[in-house]
Specification:
Blueprint lengths: L4 E2 L8 E2 L2 E2 L12 H15 L8 E5 L3 E8 L2 E8 L6 H11 L9 E3 L4 E5 L5 H4 L4 H18 L3 H5 L11 H13 L11 H23 L4 E4 L8 E4 L2 E4 L6 E4 L5 H10 L1 H15 L3 H29 L11 H11 L1
Parallel strand pairs: 1-7
Antiparallel strand pairs: 2-3, 4-5, 5-6, 6-8, 7-8, 9-12, 10-11
Helix pairs in contact: 4-9, 6-7, 6-10, 7-10, 7-11, 8-9, 10-11
Length: 338
């Protein structure tokens, strides 16, 4: 197995090779693509890997760009992340070192540019089918296992650049987002109206209460996946394996369940009780304690998720009308209806 090659300098991000690699608008252009291709080819020469194809665009989003290319060791995946999510290569390397049986180690990373090269691990569950209950249980319990192991390594995880969204930081983040989103241009999909601001002001005390509930509860913060659905799980012989760490935060562990809940309550409502029960048993919680914390975690998760989307919007600030540009407002307003 090849060891991860890290070409990060730690000195000149994000302007490397006179290119602002955190500007998502340049991905795929002639000013950017040759640098990415040269980086992969340099790694291949050093690793003794033969490349058998050119870069092929798989997907381009405002927050990341994915390319594939064939090699004599299999299909390779190149991923570039915007500045707000540029911690992913370093984070995945750290998690893989901690739990190599659950998370694959990148072949190469460059945190200055938010670049990562990985070996194909199979088909995401969400690409084949909607997933089974067993898939969901395996996926959620893998995340729990990682959270339990990483909980005592806060400084090591935060050193990768992952945002600290632990409960004690949430109220300040809520206040800051209300100001930032209300000051957006009037045509921006995430601009808060005067009515939005008034409704959020009315729910601020509930956000404070949610923080108190979580901080007084039996569980605390750890690595939080941020986007835990089966499209971010590989199919493998012994079940599924988690990937895609770009939405990660250091947050309360219960927040990870919000995305699975939002999917299962619509698509497979009978499955949710099984997933919740498995999660509770993994953490040693009874149903009453879980219920006390669940509303609180859904509220703090809404604030933290809004922060991720606002940061993504900042990466493409000149193009505010992209498909997901309203997500920051959408998630912040979820604090009202929990």
């Amino acid at each position: 197995m090849l060891s991860t090659i890290d070409t990060s300098s730690g000195q000149n991000p994000p302007n490397v090779d006179s290119v602002d690699h955190n500007d998502a608008r340049i991905w795929g252009t002639s000013a950017w693509l040759p640098h990415a291709e040269a980086w992969v080819r340099e790694w291949a020469r050093g690793a003794g890997v033969g490349l058998l194809s050119e870069f092929m665009l798989y997907r381009n989003r405002p927050w990341s760009s994915h390319y594939t290319l064939e090699s004599d060791m299999g299909r390779l995946w190149f991923k570039a992340s915007c500045g707000a999510l540029g911690f992913e290569p370093a984070l995945q390397t750290q998690i893989a070192a901690f739990a190599p049986e659950l998370v694959h180690d990148p072949l190469a990373i460059d945190s200055d540019r938010g670049w990562m090269l990985t070996l194909d691990q199979g088909t995401p569950v969400g690409n084949d089918h909607n997933g089974t209950l067993v898939d969901w249980l395996t996926f959620v319990l893998q995340i729990v296992s990682l959270q339990q192991g990483l909980m005592g390594h806060r400084e090591r995880v935060l050193a990768t650049g992952i945002p600290d969204c632990s409960p004690g930081t949430v109220v300040d983040r809520f206040d800051r987002l209300v100001v930032l989103l209300s000051q957006l241009p009037s045509d921006h999909p995430s601009q808060l109206s005067d009515l939005d601001v008034a409704e959020l002001a009315a729910v601020r005390a509930d956000v404070e209460h949610a923080v108190d509930v979580l901080m007084d509860g039996p569980l605390g913060p750890s690595w939080q996946h941020g986007d835990a659905h089966l499209g971010n799980a590989f199919t493998r012989a012994d079940g599924v394996a988690v990937f895609d760490f770009g939405d990660s935060q250091w947050g309360h562990v219960l927040e990870t369940l919000v995305v699975p809940y939002s999917i299962l309550e619509t698509e497979h409502p009978n499955w949710w009780n099984h997933v919740e029960s498995a999660w509770r048993h993994a953490w040693g919680l009874n149903e009453a304690t879980f219920t006390d914390m669940w509303t609180a975690a859904r509220r703090t998760q809404a604030v933290n998720r809004a922060a991720t989307w606002h940061a993504i919007n900042e990466c493409v600030s000149a193009e505010p009308l992209h498909q997901w540009a309203d997500r920051a407002r959408h998630h912040l307003l979820r604090t009202i209806d929990v």
